[in-house]
Amino acid sequence: MMIAVGFGLTLGGIFAISYYMNMKTPVPEGCESLQAACDGCAMTHCHKHPTHQQEV
Amino acid sequence: MAKEMWENFKSGFVKENPVFALYLGICSVLAITTTLNNALGMGITVTIVLILANTIVSLLRKITPNEIRIPVYIVIISTLVKSSELLIKAYAPTLDTALGVFIPLIVVNCIILGRAEAYASKHSVIESAVDGLGKGLGYTFGLIIMSVIRQVLGTGVLNLTNPFTGNMIFEIQIIPADYVISVFTQAVGAFLTFALIAAAVSALNARKQTKGAK
Amino acid sequence: MENLLTLAISAILINNIVLSQFLGICPFLGVSRKKDSAIGMGLAVIFVIVGASILSYLLYHLVLDPLDIEYMNLISFILVIASFVQFTEMFIKKYSPSLYKSLGIYLPLITTNCAVLYVALANITSGYNFVEMITYSIAVPVGFMLVLIIFSYIRERLDIAPVPKAFKGNPVALIVAALMAIAFSGLAGLV
User: Fold this and answer.
1) Nearest-by-Cβ selection for B68 from A9, A16, A44
2) Other beta carbons less than 10 A from residue B208's beta carbon
3) Do A36 and C105 touch (CB under 8 A)?
4) Residue-range domain boundaries for chain C
5) What is the three-state SS of chain B?
6) C-beta atoms of C170 and B30 within 8 A
7) Is C38 an 8 Å CB contact of chain A?
8) How far apart are alpha carbons B171 and B157 in whole angstroms?
9) B17, B20, B70, B115: which to substitute to probe chain A, counting the most A Cβ within 10 Å?
């Protein structure tokens, strides 16, 4: 049981670190204005979604 | 604050119905709604997971670091879904065989992650729980409508069984077996029913908006 | 060899992930409005599903099974898929701006695509060996991309056609999907 919890938290940690590092790497020049042509997309957690644009 | 909560709760049913207005969680809607049993089972499971997920996310909202919100939410939601899958396998095995792989797939149901991100991370525990209840019931409502139409037109029979004991609660034959349109139990019928209901909801919302503007 | 071919054809045409199994529809409706975005999304999905399935398969058979914690499969798979997408996006951002332009922007969308998690789970529950797993993991997203591209061609026309107001946007797209589902279900006798 403890192995499972430890394992889950390790994977969660790997995900958190990769997510953070990904947020911090800059988009290559020439690509900042790209919007995925995904209008009406319902996935609000995707960081390309309009609700996130003002934060970043 | 209570009035806002009530407005938010009501909006989950038609105006911001997760299924027909926001198009969230469609994968499960199309696949599950062949019978009323499946629809109710899935709807109630998603509602419970949504309420718990919203509550936990709201409880932890002050201490989760802002940059890694999404990983934290995904860990919370996947733990909740796995626990409910194991509980369903143990106590309602007929529901488990009927829903199959769609119970684990609740993890990637856009409704839960979407509400956690958009609402529960910014509101108090009670508001988030009520929001979860509203959106979950709206989702269940949508599932019930679709499954009733598909089951009645596709098989003519409407029945409900208790998933915990396997006893039939009721069974009605609405259309005689010779006149059923069996295409409604297949992929085509799913897409078609969903498209028609979505168009109806969109027309309803547009009419409400023009009435409100006048 | 025939076994693999049958597996591939049934995954692409007969049990098509979008039209028969109803998975991957959320991004399907969102991205399929233009041809170019459809191709970019399709390629991104192929890459993510193949990579994530291999990782999940190895994780299950080398770690979860020996340690007797199979019940962690759901949590581990979703975290592996999500991390894989993040690492891939980082890698593409740093080393290939052209690739980022064409398909990098769709990568975050694929994390919660039902299809990816489904393939990862199905590889385990169907008990495939390594080669069958690779065939299945390539065939399913190829089927997804096929339907996505056909759909985008039709949708580009629909956007300028006189559709009734209530049906504009997603409802008429779903009716098109219904017609495609009938068409594809006619292929059921192939194998």
Assistant:
1) A16
2) 12
3) yes
4) 2-190
5) CHHHHHHHHHHCCCCCCCCCCCCCCHHHHHHHCCCHHHHHHHHHHHHHHHHHHHHHHHHCCCCCCHHHHHHHHHHHHHHHHHHHHHHHHHHCHHHHHHHHHHCHHHHHCHHHHHHHHHHHCCCCHHHHHHHHHHHHHHHHHHHHHHHHHHHHHHHCEEEEECCCCCCEEEEEECCCHHHCCHHHHCHHHHHHHHHHHHHHHHHHHHHHHHHHHC
6) no
7) no
8) 7
9) B70
Q: Which residues does chain B have within 8 Å of residue A16's beta carbon, measured at their own beta carbons?
A: 68, 71-72
Tokens of C149: 């591209």
List per-residue pLDDT tens for chain B, 214 residues long.
778 778 878 777 777 788 888 888 888 889 889 889 999 999 999 999 999 999 999 999 888 888 888 889 999 999 999 999 999 999 988 899 989 889 999 998 888 988 888 888 888 888 899 989 999 999 999 899 999 999 988 888 888 888 887 778 888 888 887 888 888 888 888 999 999 998 988 888 888 888 877 6
Buried b (16+ CB within 10 A) or exposed e, C93-120: beeeeebbbbbbbbbbbbbbbbbbbbbb
Close Cβ partners of B74 (under 8 Å, ≥ 6 residues apart) = A12, A15, B107, B113, C78, C79, C82
